[in-house]
């Protein structure tokens, strides 16, 4: 499978990666109940077919997605790159909030390392730039965690150009993860050209518009769905 270097990193990643939002199972923003054994089999199949990176997030299934990725990794001799995201935190009742405070991010990174069963995370991303006023603190914290060897590279998701510039004043941005597909292409106007200019790698999410472009969504199927 064709590979391309990701931004300023030394990682040559396949053009297609495996996203793991759905395998988080049932939670507030989940995709319904999942069979963990099928999820692990899917990860194995993706790697067997040449995909060399997995993208997940701490909040997917409130930690469950990372745990499943970790279980799959333990069975692999040749392990893929592992990318995850933080800043979405939750309480014991499953209520999700946002934080880029230093103490919170450090706890998140440590928890992700345990769930994934790895000593270092290949790419750690700020999931959403919320609250905006904490961007600098969050990015400074990730830069320090990189220096400490907990993270190899640091990236962002859902950032605007102005937010990217603010982060770059502190430390280089390895990658941006924005939504992009045949329906939603607003990032092509300003954000993608800026990333190319700054050598910021781009790994898009929702390339199939959350299944809308998969060919499985018909008017009849939508009409039959619960309101």
Question: How is this structure best summarized?
Answer:
The protein has 227 residues and is of the alpha/beta class.
Briefly, what CATH class? Alpha Beta
Output mean pLDDT. 95
Estimate the global geometry from the Cα principal axes.
Answer: globular
Second-tier CATH architecture: Alpha-Beta Barrel
Terminal Cα separation, in Å?
A: 41 Å
**Which percent bin holds the helix content?**
25-40%
> Tally of extended strands?
11
Order of helices and strands: EEEHEHEEEHEHEHEHEH
Class of secondary structure makeup: alpha/beta
How many discrete domains?
A: 1
The low-confidence runs, each spanning 5 or more residues with pLDDT under 50, are none
Look at the structure and name the CATH superfamily: NADP-dependent oxidoreductase domain
The CATH topology comes to TIM Barrel
Strand arrangement in the largest pleated sheet: 3-4-5-8-9-10-11
Give an account of the 3D structure.
By secondary structure, this protein is an alpha/beta fold. It has one domain: TIM Barrel. The chain is 33% helix and 18% strand. The protein contains 7 helices and 11 strands. The chain has helices spanning 36-48, 64-74, 102-116, 135-147, 161-168, 191-198, 219-224; strands spanning 3-5, 12-14, 18-19, 53-55, 81-86, 88-90, 96-98, 121-126, 151-157, 175-177, 201-202. The strands form 3 sheets. It has a 7-stranded parallel sheet with strand order 3-4-5-8-9-10-11. Strands 1-2 form a two-stranded antiparallel sheet. A two-stranded antiparallel ribbon has the order 6-7. It is globular and about 50 Å long. The mean pLDDT is 95.
């Amino acid at each position: 499978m064709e590979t391309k270097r990701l931004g300023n990193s030394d990682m040559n990643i396949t053009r297609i990666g495996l996203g793991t939002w759905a395998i988080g199972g049932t939670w507030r923003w989940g995709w319904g109940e999942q069979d963990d054994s099928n999820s692990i089999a899917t990860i194995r199949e993706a790697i067997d077919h040449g995909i060399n990176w997995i993208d997940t997030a701490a909040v997917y299934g409130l930690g469950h997605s990372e745990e499943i990725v970790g279980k799959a990794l333990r069975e692999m001799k040749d392990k893929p790159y592992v990318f995850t995201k933080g800043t979405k935190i939750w309480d014991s009742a499953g209520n999700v909030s946002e934080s880029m405070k230093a103490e919170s991010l450090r706890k998140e990174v440590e928890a992700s390392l345990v769930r994934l069963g790895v000593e270092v995370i290949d790419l750690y991303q700020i999931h959403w730039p919320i609250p905006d006023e904490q961007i600098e603190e969050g990015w400074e914290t990730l830069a320090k965690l990189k220096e400490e060897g907990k993270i190899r590279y640091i990236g962002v998701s859902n950032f605007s150009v102005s937010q990217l510039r603010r982060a770059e004043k502190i430390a280089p941005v390895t990658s941006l993860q924005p939504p992009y597909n045949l329906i939603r292409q607003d990032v092509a106007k300003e954000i993608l050209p800026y990333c190319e200019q700054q050598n910021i790698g781009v790994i898009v999410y929702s390339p199939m518009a959350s299944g809308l472009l998969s060919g499985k969504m018909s008017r009849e199927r939508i009409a039959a769905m619960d309101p």
